[in-house]
Design goal:
Layout lengths: L14 H14 L1 H20 L9 H37 L13 H8 L3 H21 L1 H10 L3 H8 L3 H12 L3 H18 L14 H32 L6
Helix pairs in contact: 1-10, 2-3, 2-10, 3-4, 3-5, 3-10, 5-6, 5-7, 5-8, 7-8, 9-10
């Protein structure tokens, strides 16, 4: 396990700064994030909702459903993640946030989806590869699995923004996190808890509206919109890490 550091390097965002900047980026691009989420997750949630409920007494049925849901989330959810990340990165570059210069231009949500399609299969593949490595490390011991999961947090960003593929993307992410693993773990944990709690807010609607398949799909999709905040936060983290620590060389 990495050594624990006591303070952040100069230029590294504090938790408050990270959340503030991430919220600003999320708020400013909310309409685009909303459209991307609706386009991807409404069809996905409809499919998942009407998938027959397994017999929970039969473990094989439950396992099959879990694999099916995970597969669809990997295939379609990756589109939303890449597109949202692209929109946010373009906005940050244009506005000069997160230590980047004022260059480039903002992109529309439809353009973002179109632009990420060429890297979509590569993003799926790199997630499978990193998932296998994390799973193998977890089988050995739980802590190595957690270590690798945090170390590979930025593989998608390395692929999308730095055109890294395969092992290069894994190495790029690992090197960015190296020396600040505990900070990355802590920030990721807080962001995860924050979005998880916030994702339950749409369920308040059930206080006044009875359960119905339309209501259920709406609340599921609203939760996905909220979860998009974590995608925004990780883009901000990635760019800040690069600004503080020189990007890994080829």
């Amino acid at each position: 396990m990495p050594a624990k550091t006591s303070s952040a390097p100069k230029g590294m965002y504090s938790l408050k700064t990270l959340l503030t900047k991430s919220w600003g980026a999320y708020r400013e691009n909310f309409t685009k994030i909303l459209y991307i989420t609706l386009a991807v997750y409404i069809p996905l949630n409809i499919i998942l909702y009407f998938t027959p409920t397994p017999n929970f007494d039969d473990l094989s049925d439950f396992t099959t459903l879990f694999r099916w849901e995970s597969f669809l989330e990997l295939i379609l959810g990756t589109v939303a993640t890449l597109a949202v990340a692209s929109v946010v990165k373009a906005w940050i570059d244009k506005s000069g946030k997160a230590g980047s210069g004022s260059s480039g231009k903002e992109i529309e949500w439809t353009e973002a989806i179109k632009n990420i399609l060429p890297v979509w299969p590569k993003a799926i593949w790199i997630q499978i590869v990193s998932g296998i490595i994390i799973s193998l490390a977890t089988i050995l011991l739980i802590l190595p699995g957690i270590f690798m999961a945090v170390s590979y947090l930025f593989v998608i960003h390395a692929l999308l923004f730095r055109e890294k593929t395969g092992l290069d993307a894994l190495h790029y992410s690992y090197q960015l996190v190296k020396g600040r693993w505990w900070r990355t773990f802590g920030l990721t944990l807080v962001i995860g808890i924050f979005t998880f709690i916030a994702s339950w807010l749409p369920d308040i609607i059930y206080i006044v509206v009875p359960a119905h398949y339309v209501t259920d799909i709406v609340t599921m999709t609203a939760a996905d919109v909220i979860y998009a905040f974590s995608t925004v936060a990780f883009v901000v983290m990635f760019l800040n890490y690069e600004a503080v620590k020189a990007p890994v060389k080829k």
